[in-house]
């Protein structure tokens, strides 16, 4: 299995949107991802296997901080290192662009994602009440050293 990791291009939007639809209940629109390809703050990595997008991750660079927008991997490719390779590529890109920290919000009930971020040296730093809708809090996580 040879997976290629690279920056997202506009031609990737349908594949990224397909992964989004398969992974999230509060989805972005396809137009949202199209807009990301023109957003100067936006940086996305895609994981591609045999011409198909199987995962992606993105962040917005706000001055010297990288704010993760989303990371998703199709269920068939989870626990295979794809998500880890995506976050590694995102960390390297953020560091290369002068970021000193990375942050995100994750659903408080998404323990697999929380464990993934903890494994990647993120720490819990706060909570956003009802961030994902009524009764669905978001956990704020930060990583202050990107190397």
TrEMBL record:
CDD domains: NAT_SF
Enzyme class, spelled out: transferase
Record key words, sorted: Acyltransferase, Cytoplasm, Ribonucleoprotein, Ribosomal protein, Transferase
CC terms in the record's Gene Ontology section: ribosome
Domain N-acetyltransferase residues, every copy: 3-146
Classification via InterPro entries: AcTrfase_RimI/Ard1, Acyl_CoA_acyltransferase, GNAT_dom, YpeA/RimI_acetyltransf
Chief location of this protein within or outside the cell: cytoplasm
Known EC number: 2.3.1.266
Family statement: Belongs to the acetyltransferase family. RimI subfamily.
Record localization: Cytoplasm
Catalytic activity: N-terminal L-alanyl-[ribosomal protein bS18] + acetyl-CoA = N-terminal N(alpha)-acetyl-L-alanyl-[ribosomal protein bS18] + CoA + H(+)
Any GO MF annotation of the entry: protein-N-terminal-alanine acetyltransferase activity
Full protein name: [Ribosomal protein bS18]-alanine N-acetyltransferase
Function of the molecule: Acetylates the N-terminal alanine of ribosomal protein bS18.
């Amino acid at each position: 299995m040879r997976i290629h990791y690279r920056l997202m291009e506009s031609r990737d939007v349908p594949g990224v949107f397909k992964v989004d639809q398969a992974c999230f209940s509060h989805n972005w629109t396809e137009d949202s991802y199209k807009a990301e390809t023109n957003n100067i703050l936006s940086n996305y990595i895609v994981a591609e296997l045999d011409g198909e997008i199987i995962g992606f991750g993105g962040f917005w660079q706000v001055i010297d901080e990288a704010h993760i927008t989303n990371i998703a991997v199709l269920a068939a490719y989870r626990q295979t290192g794809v998500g880890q390779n995506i976050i590694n590529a995102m960390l390297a890109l953020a560091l290369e662009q002068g970021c000193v920290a990375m942050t995100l919000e994750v659903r408080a009930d998404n323990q697999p994602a929380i464990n993934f971020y903890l494994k990647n040296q993120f720490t819990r730093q706060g909570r956003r009440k009802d961030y994902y809708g009524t009764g669905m809090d978001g956990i704020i996580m930060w990583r202050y050293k990107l190397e």
